Amino acid sequence: MAIEIAALRRRILISFVILSASAIAGCQRGDLDLTDRTEEEPPPLAANVDAANPLVAPQLVSGWWSVEQNSWRWTARKFAVILRTPIGGTTEGARLLFNFTLPDVVFTHFTQVTLSASIHGSPLAPETYRRPGTAMYMREIPADFLSVRSVRIDFELDKAMPPSQADQRELGLIARNVSLEIR
Description:
- The structure is a single chain.
- The protein is α+β, with helices and mostly antiparallel strands.
- The protein has two domains: 1-31; 48-182, Sandwich (Jelly Rolls), CATH 2.60.120.
- The protein has helices spanning 2-29, 89-92, 104-109, and strands at residues 48-50, 62-68, 72-84, 94-102, 113-119, 122-129, 133-141, 150-157, 174-182.
């Protein structure tokens, strides 16, 4: 009996190590592991959100328009996302990375656009962009901002293109990916 219990414990430990390694590898790539989940179970929150991925769309909580060209989304002037705190973030802090594009059409209306963000109401430093193209908003996030399993990040542009006859949406920027990564 003792030998059977020891063998069972060993199998459980091996399974735990394999599952942990798989989960860590999946988190590092930003993939969601949906193995053994049912349709009734929501996927776990991701720390890395690709704006076009339908599996993480529930994390895009406000101000995000539909996916376009299977790779990006327009945002409104104000938009928010919920991200999982990365493993180790509660002690080490993390880095917020937001990859986006400011298209030429934005700069036909404005000479510059300023993006700001906040976590749990605590503001992060804004950044001003003066030319079209791909851009990144990157900020160091202290560990005390990440003391919970997930964080809501609210973004705001100082200006956006208003709805028009050609497009009834308020258009801010083209979002591609937002993530919290260990420093």
